[in-house]
Amino acid sequence: MNVNEHEERQDQTGDEAQASAGAGASLDAGGVPEAAIPELVIISGMSGAGRSTAAKCLEDLGWFVVDNLPPALIPTMVELGARSQGNVARIAVVVDVRGRRFFDNLRESLADLEAKHVTRRIVFLESSDEALVRRFESVRRPHPLQGDGRIVDGIDAERELLRELRGDADLVIDTSSLNVHELRAKMDAQFAGEEEPELRATVMSFGFKYGLPVDADLVADMRFLPNPHWVPELRPFTGLNEEVSAYIFNQPGAKEFLDRYAELLRLVAAGYRREGKRYVTIAIGCTGGKHRSVATSEKLAARLAAEGVETVVVHRDMGRE
User: Fold this and answer.
1) 163: left (phi > 0), else alpha (psi -120 to 50), else beta?
2) SS3 assignment, position 67
3) pLDDT averages per 10-residue partition of the chain, 321 residues
């Protein structure tokens, strides 16, 4: 089963939400009382990247989820939630290109939310062209933007349309190599906590030969250290092995790098908090994603956790060789 399940949720939910919003009053000039404003998450991203799966995960966590809501109605939905007397405390809205006029009013709506001090987060689901083509072909459905062209034409058009929103996203999740359960685990890791932490970090090891993680905010390259692959007795093991880790951090510059990079991350984390950014993905790479990047990711994650940053470790490419 892929993460897509291919976005076959009906558009009816969005239509019903629009009808409900139309029946309610418009936003008050002064906004709603700040204490009553629901928490808001906007889920968007590439068609076929798993938006429906992400939305279903939040729904299972108790969020009120509205699919395919026109962007102009997002402030109205927030106001209706605020009037629910606490019954709708968390709202997730799925917005995508099925509405065709995806960005006509989105910028205005986001500015309206900011003016009313609504805390909103944007989750963007990303995937490689190859993975998206494979998913569309597996369900034999056209891409919503391909028209008379090919699937890749629709993907290119959508990626360009979403470029600005992706840049504004608080959390980008690359689902290219994830199945449904792995995507749900990522969403759970970010949203299942009862109390919202100041900052959540994903530390991801990877192999450069398999490509850069597209959802990385920061990337570090550990290829300046000797590769345990060329040590016969260490080659079969991974960076999770104590002997491999000891070999790596006994190399000149390894401990110094860890100390200085951790110091840099403290500076960056403080800036992220000031800017209201709650999620950061730190990618640590080596040649194959088996030894140096894995050991470094584990050490770095332990330091972040010790400093109060809620941290998840992902070893993207370990075991691929």
Assistant:
1) alpha
2) strand
3) 45 41 41 67 92 91 88 88 84 77 73 84 92 89 86 90 87 89 84 66 95 92 97 96 97 96 92 80 96 97 90 92 77
Residue 188 half-sphere exposure toward CB, CA atoms < 13 A: 7
Q: Dihedral, CA atoms, 184, 311, 173, 56, nearest 10 degrees?
A: 30
Residue 121 contacts residue 41 (beta carbons within 8 Å) = yes
Residue type, 126: E
Rounded Cα distance between 253 and 262, Å, is 14
Query: What would you measure as the largest C-alpha separation in the chain, in angstroms?
Result: 72
177 three-class SS: coil
With 0-12 / 13-18 / 19 or more C-beta atoms within 10 angstroms meaning exposed / middle / buried, residue 136 is buried
222 class by beta-carbon count within 10 Å (0-12 exposed, 13-18 middle, 19+ buried): buried
- Of how many residues is the chain composed? 321
Instruction: Give, in degrees to the nearest 5, the angle at Cα 262 between 168 and 170.
Output: 15
